[in-house]
Design brief:
Blueprint: E1 5-9, H1 12-30, E2 38-42, H2 45-52, H3 57-73, E3 78-80, H4 90-93, H5 104-114, E4 119-123, H6 126-130, H7 133-140, E5 144-146, H8 150-162, H9 171-186, E6 191-194, H10 199-202, E7 212-214, H11 215-228
Parallel strand pairs: 1-2, 1-3, 4-5, 4-6, 6-7
Helix pairs in contact: 1-11, 2-3, 5-11
C-alpha cells in the first residue's frame, strides 16, 4: 500500500496546487483516478503571519507541530509543507515531529543539481529571500544563488501577500516578475527558483526568461515518489 501523505498547509492557493499535483502525479504513476492517501491540516494564514512578521520562528514551529500532530493522528506516514517561508522554522520542528518530513528547499536543490544549474535566482516572500532556507541547502550543494535588490524584494513580497495568496493573477504582476527574472538572467543566473508556492500560478515556463524550478510541484512529485517507494 502507498504511504499516507500529510500536508501541513499554510496558505490556501499553494497548498491547493500541491494537493492537485499529488493527485495528477498519482494517476500518472498508479493508474486512472489513483493517488496515495492524502490528508491536510492548516491553521489560518493570519495566525502564521502573526509570528512571521516579528520573526518568531518558534511560534511558527508551534503551529506546524500542531498540524503535524493532527496529521499523525489521521494516519499520515510522512509530512510535507507547501510553504517555503515557514521552512525557516524547520530546525524547531524536525526533531519534535511525530513523523518525518520532506524539505521543500532540499527537493528544489536536488532538481537543480540534476539539471546541472550553477547559479539560481531565488524569488519568494521577503522573509524567504532574506532568510537562510535556500542559502543553507544551495551552498551545501555547491550552488550559487542571487536574490533581487531591496526594492524588488519589497514589491515581490507585496504581490505575494496582497494578490497571489488571494488567487489574484494580473498581467501587471506577471510583467513585473518577468522583468525581475530577466535582470537576474543578465546577472548570470541560469534558472529561477519559484520559492513561494503561489508564484507558479502566475509565472510559467512559457512566460519566464529563465528555466523555472517550481518548488510546489517539485515537492508534490517527491511526496508521490516517497509514498510509492
Amino acid at each position: 500500500m502507498p504511504k499516507h501523505i500529510g500536508i501541513v498547509a499554510c496558505s490556501a492557493e499553494g497548498a491547493a496546487l500541491c494537493y492537485r499535483t499529488i493527485c495528477v502525479e498519482g494517476s500518472r504513476l498508479m493508474g486512472k483516478h489513483a493517488h496515495p492517501e492524502v490528508s491536510m491540516h492548516t491553521h489560518p494564514l493570519s495566525e502564521y503571519v502573526k509570528f512571521i512578521e516579528p520573526g518568531d520562528w518558534a511560534g511558527v514551529a508551534a503551529l506546524m507541530l500542531s498540524s503535524a500532530e493532527n496529521l499523525a493522528r489521521a494516519g499520515a506516514d510522512f509530512l510535507i509543507c507547501p510553504d517555503n517561508t515557514i521552512h525557516q522554522a524547520f530546525e524547531f520542528v524536525e526533531h519534535r515531529s511525530p513523523q518525518p518530513w520532506l524539505h521543500i528547499a532540499q527537493e528544489v536543490t536536488m532538481e537543480a543539481k540534476h539539471c546541472h544549474y550553477k547559479r539560481l535566482a531565488v524569488l519568494g516572500t521577503r522573509f524567504l529571500m532574506e532568510g537562510p532556507v535556500y542559502p543553507e541547502k544551495l551552498e551545501a550543494a555547491g550552488l550559487e544563488y542571487r536574490i533581487p535588490g531591496q526594492k524588488e524584494r519589497e514589491r515581490i513580497n507585496q504581490i505575494i501577500f496582497d494578490e497571489l495568496v488571494n488567487a489574484q493573477l494580473t498581467s501587471r504582476s506577471l510583467a513585473y516578475f518577468t522583468e525581475v527574472i530577466r535582470a537576474m538572467k543578465q546577472d548570470g543566473c541560469d534558472a529561477v527558483v519559484l520559492g513561494c508556492t503561489e508564484i507558479p500560478l502566475l509565472v510559467t515556463e512559457e512566460s519566464s526568461p529563465l528555466p523555472i524550478l517550481d518548488s510546489t510541484r517539485l515537492l508534490a512529485r517527491a511526496a508521490v515518489r516517497k509514498a510509492l517507494s
